[in-house]
Write a structure and sequence with these properties.
CATH class: Mainly Beta
Strand content: 25-35%
Number of domains: 1
Number of helices: 2
Bound molecules: calcium ion
Radius of gyration: 22 Å
Length: about 240
């Protein structure tokens, strides 16, 4: 490849990346109610309800809040507050595997091949029914990732809400997201009572609520960086000829 060809290919790659980045920033859709607000029924009961924007896909997840204390449930408020989704994970329930899940349809404006951060807060409670720990699985498009496994709090201990950051690569410009509560695989016959709140979708590291720690560098910036290095090297080589 000649110097001119190299420079053209580098510039062309950079232009393509910039166009893709702009398209993502302009049109990326956000969650319809990623904070699980708007339910008007009784949150201090097993209401088997999901708030506007969400659809139940398995079991009967509930809308809870920090005021949900029936059956010795105990929760703090998440950092974004209000209501949240409660799901039971009980994968190994004797004779009848059981999980609870909910769906967010059609998050739009994604750029195929680009990385996205899906972040949320999670917690766990020890109610009269709870038996063990568990985790949330998040399916976004064709990809699935798990949040960190949470242990069952001791009786009387109220668990914190902890941010989870998952990185997905879009395979379509519109993708559906599903959250699924699971029990600890090591003790899957024990029921876990999990909470989830504060959903965010965006470029990695850009959730203003979620302090970015160990978030991979955005794919576009990495590619742009490689392009700049290539261009600089090409210029240096030209000058020395
Ligand atoms: Ca909320």
């Amino acid at each position: 490849m000649t110097q001119t060809q190299l420079r053209r290919s580098v510039i062309s790659a950079m232009f393509g990346v910039l166009v893709a980045g702009n398209a993502a920033a302009a049109a990326l859709g956000s969650f319809a109610n990623g904070g699980f607000e708007g339910y008007v029924g009784n949150t201090n009961s097993f209401n088997s309800a999901v708030p506007p924007g969400w659809t139940t896909t398995a079991g009967t997840p509930d809308v809870f809040s920090a005021g949900t204390t029936m059956n010795n449930f105990a929760w703090k408020a998440s950092s974004t507050g209000g209501d949240f989704l409660h799901g039971i994970g009980w994968d190994g329930r004797p004779n009848a595997p059981y999980v609870e899940s909910a769906l967010q349809v059609g998050l739009t404006g994604l750029v195929i091949g680009q990385q996205y951060e899906v972040s949320f807060e999670q917690s766990i409670s020890n109610s009269n029914f709870s038996e063990g720990g568990g985790y949330w699985e998040v399916v976004f498009g064709t990809e699935s990732h798990n949040g960190a496994l949470m242990s069952l709090p001791a009786l009387g201990v109220i668990a914190d809400w902890v941010w989870q950051t998952l990185i997905f690569t879009a395979t379509s410009d519109i993708q559906t997201l599903e959250v699924i509560a699971h029990s600890n695989p090591a003790t899957s016959s024990q029921r876990a009572d999990l909470g989830i709140d504060s959903f965010f979708l965006g470029d990695p590291g850009t959730n203003p609520q979620n302090p970015p720690t160990n978030v991979p560098e955005p794919f576009t910036l990495a590619l742009l960086g490689i392009g700049m290095v290539g261009l600089a090297a090409s210029r240096r080589k030209t000058r020395t000829q």
